[in-house]
User: Fold these one by one.
Assistant:
Number 1:
Amino acid sequence: MPSGTCAAQHHWIELQQLGRRCLRRNATLTAFTTLCEHVLVEAQPAATC
């Protein structure tokens, strides 16, 4: 979970939604974090305040 950014909570909500899809493919939270978090970061930069 990203912290210290203006849009952190907004990102986390969408990350959870994306995570539901990814967790179906990946068995572990580690795989979820590795595969999905960087996708969300690229899709939505944290610079949107």
Number 2:
Amino acid sequence: MKEAPQLKEWPTFTGEGEYDHMSFIKTIDMLQEDYAIPDELITARLHSLFEKSAKRWYYGIRQTNGKNTWSWWKQEIITKWANDAWRYKIENAF
């Protein structure tokens, strides 16, 4: 196993403005695959990767649901941020 990148090299996500939650998820998935990073390390870093409103959302979800896998968190991120306004923006970007 290669050593995981330092935290400063990981993407962050605010959930505000011109956010792209799918890019955030895909980047973490690639890091996990490339460096064989276990779910526990990814989920332990989420509190540092989320910023602003995403961090407030994370703390609320974490407090309610406790520890979960990266797959579970991905689904929660998609559920929260893949709303109609985001879909409309993506569809009309092309």
Number 3:
Amino acid sequence: MAVLQICRFPDNAVLRQKAKKVSRIDRSVQRLIDNMIETMQQANGVGLAAPQIGVPLRLVVLQMPREEPIVLINPEIVKRIGEQEVTEACLSVPGYYGEIKRSASVTVKGKDRNGKTIRIRAEGLILIVFPFRSFP
């Protein structure tokens, strides 16, 4: 595994592009997932999207404290409930915290690293860490 460089906003154009759908979950995607998890952990982050490391794909890794990493390939929000204002930070904008309006709860559908369809209902901290730029 390798620790990858995290792109900084606004300097990297990939952070402003629409991420593309992952077409096949092959060895290169598995390696990318492993590297993203390693990068996120080394940066003490709880969420990382592929565009944040310069890869314009719809791929997200998340890891809550003391839990196993979650991989979402081609995630999409299928349900939103309510609205709340939360304070967020981002690995691509170090040192900056801002108030953001988000849904109070979302249901996200995607594939895990084995290609199995998964659904996650997110609220609280896990909702805040979703890197939404990788979602359609």
Number 4:
Amino acid sequence: MNDNLLIPDNYLKKIKAYIVRMPSLSTTVVKVLETCNDPQASANDLQRVISLDPVLTARVLRLINSAYFSLGKPISSLTRAIIMLGVNTVKNLALSFTILDNLKGNAACQFFSTDDFWKHSLCVGVIAKALSGIVGVPKAAREEYFVAGLLHDLGKLPLWIEFPKEYYRICSNAASSRSSLYRNETKSLGIDHGAVGGIIAKKWRLGPTLVETLSNHHRPDACSDQNCEFVSTVELANQLSLQLSIGNAGDPIRDHSKMTLLMGDLGVDSDMLIDIEDNVPAEIERAKFFLEVVRNG
């Protein structure tokens, strides 16, 4: 059946069937998440879990010794790395590697540039992490914002893969009419990329914060009070990324009124954003090592 003949119910069925076919998180990463959620767990406990996967261990150590962290001395001990970076950061590294690995090579089509998609995603991750420092998030927790920004548009990938021509038309219509992509998605497909991302996040048991971020990053006011500031920070990062025109994930139109509202909610002013903008290109170059490690092992 041709894409443009499908009705929303059929789109939903195809999307859900695709998500069912997506690989689950590796056993190692599931154990990493369980260990990190255990308040009694130590760095040694986490090291024992990660070391069961030699590829993951090598990737974590490779990234830890890269310019991304700029630690100075080479680190060859996973336990030492966990102590220096913190359990939360190492958990997010392991999670990012596995998720990006699951998605690698799955979104190739003539209408979609994976390079532009991940460039936009990296930009949002970098800006979200920088914003988290401005709004007072402790340093140990800021990597969560980078991961959330990196993954915020995850739900677009099944739409590109399953309905490439139709989704290209939806993105083109949103851009030409200067209207929101997620509303155009809902009108044509019966679901938006945020909802799709939320379903994937639940399947992978990524936790309530990431589930809400992927589901509602375009609608932070729909989030729980507990996660509203987190999601608002990621969406402000998304809007600033659109303003900078770095990468392209299919919706290049910045919503100026939303950006102003989010800045007010978070207590962020224009001078703060200018400081972030000045540092974004260099930070993206550092963060690209994430994707390089995933692609090249």
